[in-house]
Amino acid sequence: MKDLFTDDGLTAEELFGMGQGLTYNDFLVLPSFIDFPANDVLLECQLTRSIKLKAPFVSSPMDTVTEEQMAIAMALNGGIGIIHNNMSFEKQANAVAMVKRWRNGFILQPKVLSPDDTVRAVDDIKSTMGFCGIPITEGGKPHGKLLGLVCNKDVDYLSNRDVKLSEVMKKRENLTLGQAPINLETARKMLHEGKVGYLPIVDESDNLVMLCSRIDSQKSRDFPLASLDIKQQLLVGASMGTREDDKTRLAHLVKAGVDVIVLDSSQGNSSYQVEFIKYAKDLYPGLQIIAGNVVTQGQAKNLIDAGADALRVGMGSGSICITQEVMAVGRPQGTAVYRVAQYASQHGVPVIADGGIQNVGHIAKALTIGASTVMLGSLLAGTTETPGEYFYSNGTRLKKFRGMGSIDAMVQGGESGKRYLSEAQSIQVAQGVSGSVVDKGSAMKYAPYLHKGLQQAAQDVGYRSFVIIQQKVADGTIRFERRTTSAQQEGGVHGLHSYEKTLFASKL
Q1: Of the four listed, 60, 194, 449, 451, which is most buried by Cβ atoms within 10 Å?
Q2: Has 132 been annotated as catalytic?
Q3: Active site residue 419
């Protein structure tokens, strides 16, 4: 029933071959036949050549969007967060490490203390790393002989913080232990049956091998879509520049466990990125690198040839970006995504649509015309997990949101200017603005709404995944319609005196 009217509407090539730059608002996808529920739609996608996500959401590396809290929220909901680099490399690497520590399968390198350390050492670990389940080993060696375990309940009410841990720890003979080798399923079962918070895993000589946490086991149950690495830790990315001093930043990020690097530039087709990709790939062959930004096939070719594992597409289309206005370069985002994805797909390189996303319908369109994932900035701005404090203006709760090309960002962090290749210039020309956005609540509630909205959009198009949809776009089965200005007005709310626009409601 899907192929009866093959001449109704336009193919993607006819739509984007008109010689006009199109945005997401300039076209619609024509609906097809539905024979499945929306819950059957799978949103699995490739972030890079080798990293797969369960949802196509990537939070933007902006200093008012993504630090560790947003990265955790994105990963728990099937996407990934890219921690911005408008900070010192030490702080950025620490943020990456915090995401990786948030959820572990086995903790392969647990923080340990010796019996001669005091409770103050436990306090320090808790304040800097956020946990308090610490194995006590002989000499405080990472994989030394296990002597005991200290948890929060062992030290919480002690007034004297100079007490030695040997006096307060739960001794080895009173611990529930796992014997290496052991699989994760068995370890979690032992945690549950033993009603304990931590399960130290030891070898035949009683040396500590690793640790398993009950809290992390609960997190596995509560977030089935979570984006995980092979160690069952959350996936996380980080952005960076391509200057000589960024090689130090790269080393720290890799040491912290970063899964993917985003080379952050408004115009990525440069000798800087080409050379840095080759440098990073030579030093860390397994590290995934997202290059960009690009908007043409020629730009894409240079970065793919250099070894990029994914491309970030968009130039001047973000809500806080004025690159097209000031620099007179860029491309309307719909056309940019379609043309770059058309070329990149021939080389097995996924495309990230970055910019111009104002609603869930725009995400669906970006995925339909070739993007594997979408990068979200303004759509997530104002959520609880974004950096910064809320403030009130005329009774409205707001949060600051700014472009990385704004003067604010370039002056405050020092790294943002590299994105526009202008950090050494005496006069810095803004390519972004600073503003504020309304409180959106938690990203932990907003991301599931986006997920469900995409499932329903794919259902209306008539296919069970956007991977299939892209195949049907390529062979001309899925058709499009060009929208006039009047058609766009008709497709929005109109004819009302007043209305309230509530995006979603949860029955939970």
Answers
A1: 60
A2: no
A3: yes
